[in-house]
Amino acid sequence: MILGPSLGTSHAVWNSQLPWLTRRFRVLCFDLPGHGGSATGLVPASEPGRTTVQDLASLILDLANHHRWSSFHYAGISLGGAIGAHLALHQPERIASLALVCSSAHFGPAQPWQERARLVRRQGTTPLLRSSPDRWFATTPFAGTHIGRRLLDNLAKTDPTGYAACCDALATYDLRSSLAQITTPTLVVAGSQDSVTPVQHARELAEGIPNTVLEVIDCGHLAAERPHALQAALTAHLITFQKIQR
Q1: So what's the pLDDT on residue 242?
Q2: CA–CA distance from 183 to each of 13, 55, 178, 211 (Å)?
């Protein structure tokens, strides 16, 4: 199983899920370019506007190929989910099942992402730290928990060029007209208090992708805020493919 993180975080966003997942699967967690332990130089071109979700998805296929995984389950949060949806659309034989967590088929107009990319290239991620807790978490106090602090620390330490490249990828991402072509069994998880990818984004995914289950949990944009609810949704999804005891 491969787990994809959201923009500005690292694989730590999945830490709460790892104990039960690793008992049942071989698990790979990755960091986006310039995030966590991943080098910015992984993107084929770091110039503004050049990076796409396809570029990021190619890196994940390289990772799977390195480990000789011909197929794998995939779960991703936000941009991590977009990468999984792209793989399911273009490499369906590689994806055994798909979970899209607080994600979208289209993350809004290109201009705000391009503006954020320019801001981060000039000033780094520091200007984002004040507003991120309100965007990421349903309850402000969660930012003070161990995992909340770690995720915000991830953002503070993210390389500006890598972060901006991922913004460029989101600016051009739009699978709305292609959702019906995704044949992978899919779980869509929405956060009831997610202001970044609201529930209607999840409904669009669930209504567009055949053979999809929609679950809504009480969280903001990062479902790490409600680990037990996310685990329950993933367990019900994955039990179709491997016997998992709750």
Answers
A1: 60
A2: 27, 22, 11, 7
- Residue 131, helix vs strand vs coil: coil
Euclidean distance between CA atoms 68 and 64, whole angstroms:
6
Alpha-carbon torsion 229, 231, 233, 235, what sign?
negative
Whether the predicted pLDDT of 245 surpasses 90: no
Instruction: Determine the Cα–Cα distance for residues 110 and 99; give it in Å rounded to an integer.
Output: 25
CA distances from 77 to 98, 101, 103, 105 (A): 11, 5, 6, 12
User: What confidence tens digit (pLDDT) does each residue in 133-192 have?
Assistant: 999 999 889 999 999 999 999 999 999 999 999 999 999 999 999 999 999 999 999 999
Indicate left, alpha or beta for 34 from its phi (over 0: left) and psi (-120 to 50: alpha): left
Q: What φ, ψ does residue 194 adopt, rounded to 5°?
A: -80, 115
Q: List beta partners, residue 74.
A: 2, 98
CA distances from 97 to 46, 83, 93, 179 (A): 31, 13, 10, 15
Q: What is the C-alpha separation between 211 and 153, in angstroms, rounded?
A: 37
Q: How far is CA 218 from the centre of its chain?
A: 18
Q: Is the pLDDT of residue 118 over 90?
A: yes
For residue 100, what are the β-bridge partners?
Answer: 76, 188
